């Protein structure tokens, strides 16, 4: 999932960024006992996204652990539950035609897509689009940092499990029909938005990122399940879980979880943390 939502060579890249003008956004949330250094993740990426901001990597060297949404290095469930109506039963004739065109563009098996439940078809399309645009899950921010933590013996903590994320998708209203219809009907726009997302993330362009986030809204119920309810749960966990009552941690979650009144930094601020931005920004070149 771009909205909520996934190289070995990058593990040996220089550890510090040379840019002093603009960097991906890094937040510091702290109180008297602990601090969280928060970086928004892009779950699939390219080598142009590295090195990461100096402000983040300096904190990494003294951190007590890496906190992620879910540890994607763990083996996924052997059998993914795919119950639910097939996508073709949820789409109009015109939407089915568009799905066929998209499948052909991405060299995906149309029959499999049409028989999968809507949420799984969306995931398949979005992963394939990332690959089509030259992005790679093994160059995603969370993957790179998880591998680095694993190699250094740094403790890794999960805010939720992969199984919970799959369950969330399976339990979306109408099995994710709204997401699928939106994905199909806005396919051309999505390609441009994904490229803009990468540019805005690299520039630390908060206004452009907020605009992309607002443009990607679904219904309130779907947005609550994908974004806002999870943000509340994470803020509560970081604030009150006994694991995090003291210490210094780095936190890496999807970039869209960090913006607005219901974004994770603001929710931590509401819980008594002092929250500051550690990096500078410039305007992204999104045409």
UniProtKB/TrEMBL annotation:
The keyword Cytoplasm does not apply. CDD domains: Tiki. Pfam families: TraB_PrgY_gumN. InterPro entries: TraB/PrgY/GumN_fam, YbaP-like. Residues 1-22 form the signal peptide. Keywords: Signal. This is TraB/GumN family protein. It comes from Photobacterium lipolyticum.
């Amino acid at each position: 999932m771009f909205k909520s939502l996934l190289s070995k060579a990058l593990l040996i890249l220089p550890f510090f960024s040379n840019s002093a003008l603009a960097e991906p956004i890094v937040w510091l949330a702290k109180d008297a006992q602990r601090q969280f250094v928060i970086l928004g993740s892009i779950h699939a990426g390219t080598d142009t996204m590295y090195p990461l901001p100096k402000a983040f990597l300096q904190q990494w060297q003294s951190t007590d652990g890496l906190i992620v949404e879910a540890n994607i290095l763990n083996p996924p469930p052997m059998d993914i539950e795919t119950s639910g109506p097939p996508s073709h039963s949820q789409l109009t004739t015109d939407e089915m035609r568009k799905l066929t065109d998209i499948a052909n563009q991405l060299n995906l098996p149309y029959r499999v897509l049409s028989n999968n439940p809507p949420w799984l078809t969306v995931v398949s399309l979005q992963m394939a689009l990332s690959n089509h645009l030259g992005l790679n899950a093994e160059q995603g921010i969370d993957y790179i940092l998880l591998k680095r933590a694993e190699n250094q013996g740094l403790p890794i903590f999960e805010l939720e499990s992969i199984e919970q994320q799959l369950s969330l998708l399976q339990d979306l209203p109408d099995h994710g029909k709204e997401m699928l219809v939106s994905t199909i009907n806005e396919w051309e726009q999505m390609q441009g938005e994904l490229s803009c997302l990468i540019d805005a993330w690299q520039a630390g362009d908060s206004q452009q990122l907020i605009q992309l986030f607002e443009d990607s809204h679904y219904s309130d119920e779907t947005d609550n399940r994908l974004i806002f309810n999870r943000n509340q749960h994470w803020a509560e966990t970081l604030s009150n879980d006994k694991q995090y009552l003291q210490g210094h941690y780095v936190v890496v979650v999807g970039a869209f979880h960090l913006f607005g009144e219901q974004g994770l930094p603001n929710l931590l601020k509401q819980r008594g943390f002092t929250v500051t931005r550690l990096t500078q920004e410039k305007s992204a070149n999104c045409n």
